[in-house]
Amino acid sequence: MTGKLRVLIDLNLILDVLQKREPFYVASAQVLACVETGLVEGLVAAHTITTLFYLIAKDRSTEVARVALTELLHLLSVAAVDHTTIEQALSLPYNDFEDAVQMMAAVQAGAQYVVTRNIQDYRPGPLPALQPAELLTVV
To answer: Rounded CA gap, 74 and 33, in Å?
Structure first.
């Protein structure tokens, strides 16, 4: 594959790192390290940012949430979620609509993969879903 790998990172990976959730922390942190070092271009769906803000603010404070998201946005680009994204997501046969929206945001942003711990939730899909450890073998 030529060019930098472009991936959409699911919220569960970000939470793995922020909350140091075992046994997932190491692989998820390594994925974010690949983004930080420039090996991979990382994306996050726009609606993931609002969910993440809510979760951090609820657990800690709104100020901590603002700082965490500001730092995250230095690392990851935001994949837009617009009218077309929602319409296309509605056509996917997913049980979880949020996953369908993430998949279509990834497609529209030109990602090659969705990186998630819940790959079964993204099948079938227009893009392959990889677990963090799987992505690390492709980089």
So the answer is: 13
In the DSSP assignment, the letter for residue 51 is H
Q: What is the pLDDT of residues 16-32, one digit of tens each?
A: 999 999 999 999 999 99
Question: What domains can you pick out in the chain, each with its CATH number?
Answer: 5-133 (3.40.50.1010)
Asked whether the beta carbons of 116 and 129 are under 8 A apart, the reply is yes
How many residues would you count in the chain? 139
Buried b (16+ CB within 10 A) or exposed e, 83-114: eebeebbeebebeeebbbbbbbbbbebebbbb
pTM across the whole model: 0.93
- Residues with Cβ within 8 Å of 112's Cβ and at least 6 positions away in sequence, in order, are 1, 5, 6, 7, 127, 128
pLDDT in tens, 87-132: 999 999 999 999 999 999 999 999 999 999 999 999 989 999 999 9
**CA pair distance 97, 2, nearest whole angstrom:** 32
